[in-house]
Amino acid sequence: MSEGNEATARIDEEILPFELGYLPEYFQKKAALELNETPERKEQSIQELREFLERNKHTTGLIFEDYSLIEFLRVNKYNAVKSFSQIKAYVALRKKNSQLFQNLSYEWLVKTFYDRTLTVLPWRCPDGCTIIIVELENWNPETFPLDQVKKAIFFYIIQALREPMTQVNGIKAIIDVKSTNINHLRYCTPSNLYLIYYGLQEVCPCRYKEVHLINDSVVFRAAWFAIKPFVSEKIKKRIHFHNDPKTLVNFFPKAILPKYYGGDLENFQMWDWLKRSTTREKLNTLGGIRNWPE
Question: Is-above-0.85 flag for pTM?
């Protein structure tokens, strides 16, 4: 397995599918090198986290799946104290914004794939990253209200993190900020933008490796002005601005990019993954908590 974003990387050779369900040997070594992960440390840290959670009044009684605890441990490079602090923040956000995690279904979420507002690509970068595309121009607030957009964003990130490959390698986002809908501006409030940024960056146990912004617009400039003060210097260094979407091929293999962004990919609808992600079992353990109170 080679690491990098070579334009000539080939599917099923350097490029692995999004749905893999395990860590290949190369990425096990990567987790050990970059995240301090060993079988012994994993077992010990999970037990330590469970003891922290049981003693805390805000988390006692909640049943956390092992994979969820591993998510937080991996993003914090196996620092159990930092992982515990982030879990508490996640629980607090979920209690305060419970509507973001309720009334989810395949029938409801499938609209985001039809309209291409949010898309998870079926193939990974050669370095193992998951790729998520957001296309602002396709968002119609009249038929897809902002509260539902927030729900969908959190759903996709949380469910993508069930994959060990996503936990270890992180996510790269392509955000097409083109917008001719002036109504989009009304939703660029500091509170809306901060919730999305804080929830995704500070609370969700995800490693964001790159953010690619394409097709600049008035709506984006307003949103960026509001959210920029909150963005960490680490994330700012990982943001790439593209005047021409075709320059994405300098960062991603053509084989995994949609044709309209200069790639070779034509059919990239993830219906089967979405169905599996919205089974009763998966929704009942959303975010890795089995007995969340309604």
Answer: yes
157-214: per-residue pLDDT in tens? 999 999 999 999 999 999 998 876 777 877 777 788 788 888 888 899 999 999 999 9
Please answer whether residues 137 and 115 qualify as being in contact, where contact means their C-beta atoms are separated by less than 8 angstroms. Answer: no
Closest to 163 measured CA to CA, from 212, 108, 123: 123
Average pLDDT, the chain: 89
